[in-house]
Amino acid sequence: MLVLASASPRRKELLSLLVKEFEVLPADIDETPHHQEAAKDYVVRMAVEKAKAAINKYKVQPDADSSAIIMSSDTSVVIDGDILGKPASLDDSHSMLRRLSGRSHQVITSLCLSDLRFDHVITKCIVNDVSFRDISDVEIEQYWKTGEPHDKAGSYAIQGLGAVFVRSMSGSYSAIVGLPLYEAALMLAQFGIHPLEGLSHE
């Protein structure tokens, strides 16, 4: 059994491209960055802590499978070394998108796979570059009113209307959305889960 430690509908949708059946078990953790914590270290730490929290929740379930594999992930938008979280208001969104406007930034996504004993753990960190065109204040306000940026790191969704701001990107599109499919497939194979083999059988 594969368990996805995430409430993100985007990660669920992406994982369903690789695996037919899996359980979703969101893990709530403190996502506050440590003082002077590097963005890559933070993103990997978040994925690891989500995995640990999900393991603790899963193990107490009456039908828990002792051979279950936990998958967790975290995505952060980073500019000038600063981690941009999810906006709490239009002012937050305006501040974030104003910083991203006309510039390049990084979208860093981590992935963690672990067994229930946490003695077989693999982590991976993928850094992608995204370049934005100039964005006007009117566009920021209009975009906020669509509701799309409300729960998105950096206050935009590249898989949605936020794509109109993206001049170019390099790296993994699926990682920017929330789950790096290439890396996920390689890591799943290390746990004996082979996506193409599983999906090709009726």
Write the layout of secondary structure elements.
Elements: E1 2-4, H1 9-15, E2 23-24, H2 39-59, E3 69-79, E4 82-84, H3 90-100, E5 104-115, E6 121-132, H4 137-145, E7 166-170, H5 173-177, H6 181-190, H7 195-199
Parallel strand pairs: 1-2, 1-3
Antiparallel strand pairs: 3-4, 3-5, 5-6, 6-7
Function: Nucleoside triphosphate pyrophosphatase that hydrolyzes dTTP and UTP. May have a dual role in cell division arrest and in preventing the incorporation of modified nucleotides into cellular nucleic acids.
Enzyme class: hydrolase
Keywords: Cytoplasm, Hydrolase, Nucleotide metabolism
Salient structural properties:
seven-stranded mixed beta sheet; alpha/beta; Maf protein; 202 residues
Mean pLDDT: 94
Task: Please count the beta strands (DSSP E, at least 2 residues each).
Answer: 7
Number of DSSP helices? 7
In N-to-C order, the SSE pattern is: EHEHEEHEEHEHHH
Name of the top-level CATH class:
Alpha Beta
Classify the helix fraction into a percent range. 25-40%
Characterize the largest beta sheet: strand count, sense, and whether it forms a barrel. 7 strands, mixed
What's the CATH architecture? Answer: Alpha-Beta Complex
Subcellular location: Cytoplasm
Site (Important for substrate specificity): 10, 75, 159
Cofactor: a divalent metal cation
Enzyme class: hydrolase
